Amino acid sequence: MSGSLVSPATRRRVRDLATPIARGLGRLGLTPNALTVVGFLGTCVAAFAAAGQAWAVAGVLVLAFGIFDLFDGSLARATGRVSRFGAFLDSTLDRAGEAVVYIGIVAGCLAIDHPLGAVSAAAAMASAFMVSYTRAKAESLGFAPAAGMANVGLAPREVRVVIVAIGLLAAAASSLDALAGALILITVLASLTTVQRILHVRAQAKEG
Amino acid sequence: MSGSLVSPATRRRVRDLATPIARGLGRLGLTPNALTVVGFLGTCVAAFAAAGQAWAVAGVLVLAFGIFDLFDGSLARATGRVSRFGAFLDSTLDRAGEAVVYIGIVAGCLAIDHPLGAVSAAAAMASAFMVSYTRAKAESLGFAPAAGMANVGLAPREVRVVIVAIGLLAAAASSLDALAGALILITVLASLTTVQRILHVRAQAKEG
What we know:
mainly alpha
């Protein structure tokens, strides 16, 4: 099994930090699924900021709603409201949110005539989707439990969120080439992750 | 359960037509998985054609390899070599193939400065991925069998392939606005399909 850039211990520690905040949001009357939808809408605002070339705002919002995304699961676990539909909605809107951010970057790069940025954003979107798709498809066919597959892959969503946020902040601070570089990095890491997952599934198929 | 633009009867009829050709390819020594990989590589050629604004070539290749994609499954069924890994590889490379075509269109539209085409291609890619992702994720969580989910949705892959091919041929014959129109149509149909699937899963979750 291949390594990840985020260790299971780090994952657990971050989750523990999220729980009290998530409980607080729950006391405001928000359900886990409502938090999922709010997080998606916030990410759409980040996408609009990117489309309008407000790169710094987009970067901060991507990071903020990337963290916010921890709360729905934490609240569900803390209040015993974990559901299959909640898991489905969370994963689905995570994908949609990531996609709208990349589409926003495509639009923003086109508006100021930076074709490399636009193509890299499209490539990053495709490769990020492939990472999520291979996991879901493998699981739907009965390969590997969720925990196993999650550990296979250099660039899980958390890592991608941080890289794209840094890229957006770098676009604000210096040039769009830095953003394009971040997007190409995501494309490379995510494509390697997809290949890792395909090989992992093939190995499991041979064992079975 | 909602309707689809492709009836199950049409699907079966097309499959029946594909079987003898698939058997012929099998006699040449090709395995079902080899056909899957060949189909993906062919689609990559279509993507390069689109990136080079050879729209007509891209349209013909997208259609040809869209049809070619029937043969791997037909050969596997006809020769008793259906496997879980084969199903995984087929679905995964179908997604990757669709994505590279859209990335090719983004690049082609950028090269001749047609931002609407580029943004629509990125949006079509995202929405097409959402259709496939929602199905795989729903199934991985134990919702609906494959056959059930496949019937939910206006725009399955076959329909998307035909629309994008027509758009590419229209781009060659008239203007890129026609291609952008086709991509926007895919985005609308695929987004509606995604919403249909989310509602379908929610309904199932409520029953359960």
